[in-house]
Amino acid sequence: MPVSRKLPKGKLHSCLTIDVEDWFHILDSPVVPGIERWPFLESRIERNLEAMLAVLDSFSVKVTFFWLGWLAERHRDLVRMCRDAGHEIASHGYAHVLAYEVGPRIFKADITLAKDILENIIGDQVRGFRAAGFGITKKAP
Hints:
- By secondary structure, this protein is mainly alpha-helical.
- The protein has helices at residues 45-58, 69-74, 76-84, 99-122, and strands at 17-20, 64-67, 88-91.
């Protein structure tokens, strides 16, 4: 028998999650620039994220933002803006690496670095993590 719960009037609940990454973080494409070129590329994250926050706020919806540590380092104010708006801050790793490509040692270093950066920015524990590109597989558990 399904359980029915009434939501408080005027409150919207969300299971929406958003990966915070830029156009040059696309996976599995030979034309995507390597991390050594990222600092020199035009970032589009600021205007897009601010617009997204405005839409979410207009509907009083809270989401989980899965931040790349590399972006968070460069956009600390945007991470805090998401947190201050009441959204959960979670990790998407540092450099958008695929676990099955880099191996356990590099993968652990990548996610540890991202977690440390995010926790330093928000002053709180980061509990959520989403692997890039469905990179946690049977081959790379």
